[in-house]
Amino acid sequence: MSEPGGVPKVVAGTSRYLDDRLGLGNVVRRNIRKVFPDHWTFLLGEIALYSFIILLLTGTFLTFWFQPSMGHVAYNGSYAPLRGVMMSEAYASALHISFEVRGGLLMRQIHHWAALLFVGGLMAHLLRIFFTGAYRKPRELNYHIGLAMFALALVEGLTGYSLADDLLSGAGLRITQGILLGLPLVGTYLSFFLFGGEYPGEDIIARFFTIHILLLPGLLVALVTAHLTLMWVQKHTQLARKGRTNMNVVGGPFFPSFMLKSGAFFMFTFAILAGLGAAVQINPIWLFGPYTPADISAGSQPDFYMGFLEGSLRMMPGWEINFAGYTLPLSVLIPGLLPLALIFGGLIIYPSVERWITGDTREHHFAERPRDNPYRTAIGMAAVTFYGLLWLLGANDEISDHFHIPLFAITWFGRIAIFAGPALAYVITYRLCRGLRLRDAQMIEHGVETGVIKRLPEGEFTEIDVPASDDMAAPLLGAEAIPELAGAEAAVDGAADGEPRPKGLRGRIGRLRARMSRAYSEPPITEVPGADGEGRKAVTAGESYHRPDQRS
């Protein structure tokens, strides 16, 4: 049975019942057709979201059988090589899940793969936000919520990775305890508080379990909800295209377009993770054995998102200093804390620094192409190179073993490359962005090469160029200029024509700000040297690009 209009009676009746009591009809009608811009890069954030949902579902399944206890038991399960071995109840229950619980190993592996994909999706999404300038007004708050989610995801991964209490995860936990002990004044107290006494204590697994399944997931759910709510209100930034401006949104409606695409992509993500969990082995804890502080392992590698800290520890030379009666193990403190401070500190303050340099307080709803902001892109690639080198050097022993390169040579290469690599990446990226902008300007000025050669009456051969199409030219001419602070030129070059420097740009800090503003600013494509912009104009807010008549 259906109501008039083809709506099933049960749906219509339920909707009318809820609307009469909750007044949701107008809210639903207003939001169900909400328009969202569409681009493949938006799927990066959705990958992280769907992986997080799968993490919650599989993690709930695993909690029914996992025992978060460090009580000692003799293993008598079905895995013969470990029968009779003394181990913690946590490790024994992880083996029980893997070998006795129906579907337990599949769920463990899906959970682990989902954790890796969750962090990887967050990292890729964060890079998209940074390189396209999507953190600018009015999205600063949502950007910092995303950074908080990323930081919590790293801690969530560390706590979950340690719960199995196998030899591999125990090695990572020992490194964590070493970094805590290296903190001056409070390090010993923090270590005793976390481990419940001398390492490894009897409480760490139970405490990590509570943090892993209750505290951090609750915070992540709250942050994800806030992030999605703000995204719903502000929408994604859209790329410059014909007909798109800062004042409109071009895309598909939430229903049915966005819902159908998102539902299909969730199933696709789940299928990939289920396939990996079923066919690709990950973290075979039964091969490592239970953790004991007296045992060590060779070739130990953490999950990829912690690899950069492993690399920094391996590259740092032994360095300790005595200060005020305290020994500061800088060989642990610097590699354990400095990379985190540089990466997260830089991500946190960069939007404010950029706004201070440019004085730009406008709202931005366009996603910039990375080439349109050469300095930001170069800084970002330097940071990516810094992270990537540390991540790679976290496997220096494996590289040495497989490629027969002396470990000492790899270590010294890493100590040099960690400084030279980011600097080189910065210079190369900056020059590439400049070159690409110049090529765009030349295409606007001269047109697009056709490959058709024409012979002139004088005998000269020349290639025929045609004007760029609307779709090709709109992203170039729609790019917003990066502004320069008013009076920056006078502050840098001295008082011009007897005019005093602007008040906010006086003194050393003011002159530094003015110099940085002049260097950081970028004109629109039509003002780049080599482009006369004849017949075309830059797109401003509230208007769209229209190609002039090119017929002669």
TrEMBL record:
It holds the Pfam family Cytochrom_B_N_2. It is found in: Cell membrane. It is a multi-pass membrane protein. It catalyses: a quinol + 2 Fe(III)-[cytochrome c](out) = a quinone + 2 Fe(II)-[cytochrome c](out) + 2 H(+)(out). GO terms for molecular function: metal ion binding; oxidoreductase activity; quinol-cytochrome-c reductase activity. SUPFAM superfamilies: Transmembrane di-heme cytochromes. Its EC number is 7.1.1.8. This is Cytochrome bc1 complex cytochrome b subunit. It comes from Spongiactinospora rosea.
